[in-house]
Amino acid sequence: MRITFKLVIISILLATVSQAQAATIKKQRAAESDSTQVLFIGNSFTFYNDMPEMMRRLASTLNLKIAPSRSLKGGQTFEGHLMDPFLLGILKDGGFDYVVMHDASHRPSYSTKDVMRDVYPYAHKIDSLAKAGSPNVKTIYYMTWGHKDGIRAAKRTDYPLNHTYHGMQQRLNTSYLEMAHENGGICAPVGMAWERVVNERPDIDLFSAKDRYHPSKEGSYLAACTILSTILGKPFVSPYYAGLPEEVALYLQKTAGETVADNLALIGIKQ
Q: Which of 2, 41, 87, 177 is spaced 20 to 30 A from 25 at the CA atom?
């Protein structure tokens, strides 16, 4: 009886772990269609609140059909993505109009020496694979945001520049802008729009209250708006608010659009 009880408990624990792992892995290839094909490569900063679906719904109100594909895994790095057969397979198959990608949130905020060793080479490899499979693809480097309290806990090193939110954001800005520039891509300046909201509207909390670095729904909505504005190359106004108050949603749309429009040359969009 005790053995049976233990087996039941073990089975429940294994099922719980399996479900938790499944919740952090989102892999899907969108069906072929006349829609704009967008592949998201990243981790929880993308799949929280299903940001790609937010972007699809925003675009649909502008008569732009987007079919989002996903290669997402919690905490994944560019280096780790390159060991994923699913991603390598769909990049080889091609057919993408845009590939939107970001590294683990902490990695591009480290020292230049570390970023050059641990981030840039793998970003370049993914970029090259994307262009080999989809010759007309545009690669978009999704600039993420600094953690609310800067780098903490196990990810913290003695490098001081990323120990605060603003310091971490500046490092991320530089790393993502350089990746886009060096690889002939475009940078979606989500982190820059995020910092503007932090400075202008502290009443809008873009961070998850649970850990202070993942996005709240407002944060994911801002990311979706900024990436869509980057694809469009201009601001937009949409009636899709993702359940947010109208005033908040319109402010986030406006901030995203202005951040893109005010920085076209910087982020790699040719006028």
A: 177
What pLDDT, in 10s, does the model give residues 21-68?
A: 345 789 999 998 999 999 999 999 999 999 999 999 999 999 999 999
For residue 174, count CB atoms less than 10 angstroms from its CB and return exposed for 0-12, middle for 13-18, buried for 19 or more.
middle
Instruction: Name beta bridge partners: 251.
Output: none
- Tell me if 32 is assigned to some domain: yes
Give the largest CA-CA distance in the chain: 74
Q: What is the pLDDT, as a whole number, of residue 271? A: 78
Helix pair 190-200, 246-261: axis angle to 10 deg: 130
Question: How far is the first Cα of the chain from the last one, in angstroms, to the nearest whole number?
Answer: 74
Q: In this structure, are residues 76 and 87 in contact, taking their beta carbons and an 8 Å threshold?
A: no
**Residue 78 belongs to a domain:** yes
- In 3D space, the residue among 241, 240, 233, 218 whose CA is nearest the CA of residue 264 turns out to be 233
Domain count, the chain: 1
The two structure tokens encoding residue 52:
């790609």
| Domain encompassing residue 177 | 26-267
Query: Cβ distance 230 to 189 under 8 Å?
Result: yes
Place of tokens 């480097």: 141
**CATH label of the domain that carries residue 105:** 3.40.50.1110
Residue 231 has pLDDT above 70, yes or no: yes
Secondary structure class of 196 (helix, strand, coil): helix
Amino acid at residue number 109: S
Domain-located, residue 5: no
pLDDT at 169: 98
Q: Is the pLDDT of residue 167 over 60?
A: yes
